[in-house]
Each structure stands twice: as C-alpha cells, then as structure tokens.
Design goal:
This protein is mainly alpha-helical. The protein has one domain. The chain is built from six helices and no strands. It has helices at residues 8-20, 26-38, 47-59, 65-76, 98-110, 116-121. Helix 1 (8-20) packs parallel to helix 3 (47-59). The longest helix has 13 residues, at 8-20. One of its GO terms (cellular component) is mitochondrial matrix. InterPro entries: FAST_kinase.
C-alpha cells in the first residue's frame, strides 16, 4: 500500500510528528523523498505543509538534496516539472507566511543545502 495515497497534510503530520518525538526513520524519510521528487502534481501542498515537511527533515538531519532542490524550484517557479502545478497551489514565496519562510530557510541552512537563488529571493 505504501504512501502513494498520502496527501500533503498526511505527509507533513507524519514526518512532523516523528521529528517532534525525535524518532528518526531513515527508510521512511527516504521513501517519502523519492515519492515527492517524482511527484508531478503539488496542487494539494500548502506553504505550511511544505515548510513543516522540510522542518522535519532538517530536525532529524535527514538529507535529501533532490527533494530540497525540487522544492526550491517549485517555490521559485522554475527548474522542475512540478512547476506547472505550482501557480494554482500557492507554492510561491510571496504566499508564504513569515513563519513558513523561516522554517523553510532554517531547514535549508540546518542541512547545509545550498540554494542561493532561494535565499536571494527572500
């Protein structure tokens, strides 16, 4: 069955709960990263769900450069196939709350995940 049926809120709550409980699950996080990177429709993701998901990865020190690169591309509006769905999802930096921006940038910084264009955009 797996995680294919999970929506953005399911993903954010799952990884966020594990991070809050300080329960690393490397295989689960790797599986979710792979699914997210291959995702071609991000229409159910909100800035809050996205920032919470990245926060969880960083809190548990789970690196996924492909996931973070995909997210940066979506948020900035380029460099990913998922970009086509981003305009109707609200996944543009201008739609992020200050809290969502701070969680997102913290996650990139905590994992030493370079994204100069994302940081410059803020």
């Amino acid at each position: 069955r797996g995680f294919r049926g999970f929506n953005s809120q399911d993903i954010a709550y799952t990884v966020g709960g594990l991070a809050t409980a300080r329960r690393p699950q490397p295989e689960l996080f790797s599986c979710l990263s792979d699914l997210l990177v291959r995702r071609d429709d991000w229409s159910d993701f909100t800035p809050q769900a996205l920032s919470t998901t990245l926060w969880a990865y960083a809190t548990l020190r789970h690196r996924s450069a492909p996931l973070f690169d995909a997210v940066a591309g979506i948020v900035l509006g380029h460099d990913t196939a998922a970009t086509a769905t981003a305009p109707r999802t609200g996944l543009r930096l201008s739609r992020f709350s200050p809290h969502d921006i701070s969680l997102t940038l913290w996650a990139f910084a905590a994992l030493s995940q370079p994204s100069p264009r994302l940081f410059d955009a803020v």
